[in-house]
Amino acid sequence: MALTISYQLTEADYIDAQRMHAWRNYKPSTAAFVMQWSPYLGVVFLLMASVILLNGGPEWLAWIELVGGLYMTLSGVLARYLLGRRFRATHAAVTTTTIRFDDDVISVEGPKASSRIDYSGIQNIVQTRGNIMLYLAPAVFIPVPRRALTPEQQGELANLLDVKRNVRR
Description:
Layout: E1 3-7, H1 11-22, H2 28-54, H3 59-90, E2 97-101, E3 105-109, E4 114-118, E5 124-127, E6 131-137, E7 140-145, H4 151-168
Antiparallel strand pairs: 1-2, 2-3, 3-4, 5-6, 6-7
Helix pairs in contact: 1-3, 2-3
């Protein structure tokens, strides 16, 4: 039984995978909470900086509040901008990646390289709303966009990975 998936990685897929990779050591609920509430906390810091300056408080404290507020408010936007820029620089040409899940190995065919990976090489699987990420090492992963899979293929892939990963344990 072989499952073949072909897809073109989009900028949204890339950004989703990189953001999830950055938050991989946190519980999903913690990561979602921090990503959602950081901009609001940043606005509070900016307001506190203005109150400190208007009331004649220490300038050094106002600067700390200002820098922290700007960072927390703009970090999500800045991260998306920088990741988008990196995607456009490294994935400028629209290319197709093909992944074939065979009974014994995973074959990955990309525009510049190809490789064969044994199922025992998969250290972890992280799933997001947009991607299924197969970790081969702590900082090396293969993103598989969910949009490239039909619901039947998603179930088949989940079963295949579960069986193959449980066999090696």
